[in-house]
From TrEMBL:
Pfam families to which the protein is assigned, alphabetical: HAD_2 (PF13419)
Provenance organism: Aspergillus sclerotialis
UniProt keyword annotation of Electron transport present: no
Keyword Metal-binding: yes
Protein name: HAD superfamily hydrolase
Length: 243
């Protein structure tokens, strides 16, 4: 096993508790779209999370069109993608908090200078930057090492497509087995695994032990190497992978 040289972190609900805030904004826009198309169904943020967790807004809108069998024009889709980004950023700037214990572990990693650090997210780059800045994590990452599947690639995509992880590996000039990914969702875990990287599954963002157990099982069944229930366990999880 080659030495681990770098750590790539997902952002939403791994570093920053942003998923719930973002899904509130997504639900508002999804409902607006459904209403315009004459559908009576409405989403809450909570229901959207259950249906589409780990997907970015563009991915969600593609799934929504497939589910309800309608089509958004390219212009409409781009309008809503931009609008969602603006609304989410406003909510993040007002209310985002770091995942419990994440800042302390990032500080330790940053001080140790042992590993390269990057953020690898499905979300739009402006949103990721707003999230990490709001909670004081931007100082731990070189701005060129914050990657977005929606913004950093020539063709926008979303996890579970491994493209964004492959792009980050290329920028870092690393083999996948040299890098550990930290992920909280099925789509994120699949994205990293498809890129050939070992994964630490973080379940600390989920409410209740039962839910944590369920997600832990789901992500380890997919192939995650180890489970982190709290950020205080990060060093232990990393040591397990390095061993």
């Amino acid at each position: 096993m080659p030495k681990i040289t770098d750590i790539f972190f997902d952002c939403d609900n791994t570093l920053v508790l942003s998923e719930e805030l973002a899904f509130e904004a997504c639900a508002d826009l999804a409902n607006e779209i459904l209403e315009k198309r004459g559908f009576s169904d409405r989403y809450t943020g909570e229901q959207l999370i259950q249906d589409f967790v780990g997907q970015n807004f563009r991915g969600m809108m593609i799934s929504l069109q497939a589910k309800y069998k309608f089509e958004l024009s390219k212009e409409e889709l781009e309008y809503y993608v931009k609008e969602e980004e603006n609304q989410v950023i406003a909510k993040l700037n007002a209310k985002a908090k770091p995942c419990v214990g994440a800042n302390e572990e990032l500080q330790k990693l940053y001080d140790s200078k042992k590993y390269g650090l990057a953020v690898v997210s499905s979300s739009a780059l402006r949103r990721v930057q707003a999230s990490i800045k709001k909670v004081g994590q931007d100082k731990y990452f070189n701005p060129n090492h914050v990657f977005s599947a929606a913004s950093s690639l020539s063709k926008p995509t979303s996890k579970p497509d491994p493209a964004i992880y492959l792009h980050a590996l290329e920028v870092f000039n690393r083999k996948p087995e040299q890098v550990v990914a930290v992920e909280d969702s099925k789509s994120g875990t699949l994205s990293a695994l498809r890129a050939g990287m070992p994964v630490i599954a973080y379940v600390g963002c989920y409410n209740g032990d039962e839910k944590k157990d369920e997600i832990a099982k789901r992500l380890t069944d997919l192939g995650a190497k180890t489970v982190m229930r709290d950020w205080s366990e990060f060093q232990k999880c990393l040591a397990e992978i390095e061993a």
